[in-house]
Here is the input.
Amino acid sequence: MRRWVNVLVVAATVLAGATTAATAAQAAPIAPAPNVASAAAPRGPGWVSVPVPPFERAAGVVCDFAVKGVPIVADLWKKTLQTNPDGTVRSELWVGPLIYQVTNESNGKSTKLDGSSWGVIVYNPDGSSKWHLHGPLGVGFAAGTGNLPRGLYQVNGPNYTLAIAADGYKTLTIRHGTVNNICPRLA
Here is the structure.
């Protein structure tokens, strides 16, 4: 069975303004958006459903214009793989499809942004995290907040990582794959 990672990075951490995975989890709404396609839970014990919020970014944050993302497919699940001695989560497996309809708020142009990768997130005691991913990812970078220029990116590849420092700085490391800024497509 093919597994997909929540790229909560798209939904909450990166695009909704949270700076770490911990704040992203706190920022998530109680229920998923209405009219969102959903599938069955992964097999086996320990899986927890993860709600996916829409996002909005003001003009100049990731694109020259304001963008809004609405989840059109979102069926995310997480499972704790390892805990710290104090009981906090050390690592989780995230799976499930995630596709946003992203719209330029000024001209109405839209495109899909696929965040349906799968992988493991390792949470560090200092508040940083490292995401070991496979498959498509949508990720936003504001100016000076990461190793990519300001933009809203569609990433795809079989093996890459996204490290999020405790201060929110993002480092995307691609071993094999592609990175494309979708802002020009929406302009």
User: Anything to note?
Assistant: Residues 8-186 form one domain. The longest strand covers residues 151-164.
